[in-house]
Design a protein that fits this description.
Helices cover 27% and strands 20% of the residues. By secondary structure, the chain is an alpha/beta fold. The protein has a domain of 170 residues: Vaccinia Virus protein VP39 (Rossmann fold, 3-Layer(aba) Sandwich). It has a 7-stranded mixed β-sheet with strand order 3-2-1-4-5-7-6, with helices on both faces. The longest helix has 15 residues. It binds S-adenosylmethionine. The site of S-adenosylmethionine has 26 residues, from α4 and β2.
Length: 256
């Protein structure tokens, strides 16, 4: 009896994190962690799926269109989809930015990347390219992206400070990083907003907005590079107690 409730809760959170896609993460290439960057001072979620939820359900809630509208994603823009998984956002981003825009979809699981590449070809999205990254380095070209999307994946980055540090040069002038995640502990496949803000700030990003996004299962936060990029040795990890909620959902989804 006493075990039943925690087990049920764990199963519910896992389903909310991955919607039962049966594919596991496969062989992820890992690099040495001896890089001078601090480790995350909180749990890191394991990779359990290539998608957050089914595409039918997400389109029923108009998720991608709302996130893209609020992120200001327009035809002609260059956008990265980090942790692209099955490509729910990749496909819709490719359609939104159009022939004059460009989308780079990145993930660290080779199987996910090869299946997404097949999907992109099948859907004839000539403006989308797909690439394999490393857990601590998305390997994106410098000075390139108007928007970088990280949807339901931040809590799975095992070295968030190094990852964000290496991501920063890829932003074009005025470029923004858009994070969508659930407001719950990282071990339960979410990121508390205060913790997210603290970890981005530690690497030299300022938060420019945050709003509840019920249709995307949590909140949407937007960041820009601010000031210089700190030396890795000077970065201090945020305490896992940086958990105070900063987003209060409004009834009727007034913020979306
Ligand atoms: C729950 S899925 C979400 C996929 C997609 N963004 C969506 O909204 O459906 C999380 C994805 O992030 C990827 N991921 C985890 N850590 C990553 C990292 N350090 N860099 C890039 N992708 C990562 C996983 O392989 C997985 O495909």
């Amino acid at each position: 009896m006493t075990l039943a409730r925690p087990l049920l809760l764990g199963a519910t959170l896992l389903l909310a994190a991955c919607d039962g896609s049966p594919r596991g993460p496969g062989n992820v290439t890992r690099e040495s962690s001896n890089t001078g960057f601090p480790a995350a001072d909180r749990p890191v979620a394991t990779i359990v799926s290539s998608r957050w939820s089914s595409e039918e359900e997400r389109d029923r809630l108009n998720e991608a269109a709302k996130v893209m509208d609020l992120a200001g994603i327009k035809p002609g823009m260059t956008v990265a989809d980090i942790g692209a998984g099955e490509g729910y956002y990749t496909i819709r981003l490719g359609q939104r930015v159009g022939a004059k825009g460009r989308v780079v979809a990145e993930d660290i699981v080779p199987d996910y990347i090869s299946q997404l590449a097949t999907r992109v070809v099948r859907e004839k999205l000539d403006n989308v390219s797909v690439r394999l990254g490393l857990p601590a380095d998305p390997r994106l070209p410098e000075n390139s992206f108007d928007r970088v999307l990280m949807v339901h994946m931040y809590h799975e980055i095992e070295s968030p400070y190094e990852f964000l540090w290496r991501l920063r040069p890829s932003l074009a002038p005025g470029g923004q990083v858009v994070v969508v995640d659930a407001d719950r502990p990282t071990e339960n496949h979410g990121t508390p907003p205060a913790l997210l803000k603290c970890e981005f700030a530690a690497v030299g990003y300022k938060q420019v907005s945050i709003r509840p996004m019920a249709s995307a299962g949590g909140y949407m936060a937007v960041f820009e590079a601010s000031g210089g990029r700190p030396e890795p040795e000077t970065i201090r990890a945020c305490k896992s107690g940086a958990h105070a909620p900063t987003v209060t959902p409004k009834p009727n989804g007034a913020h979306e």
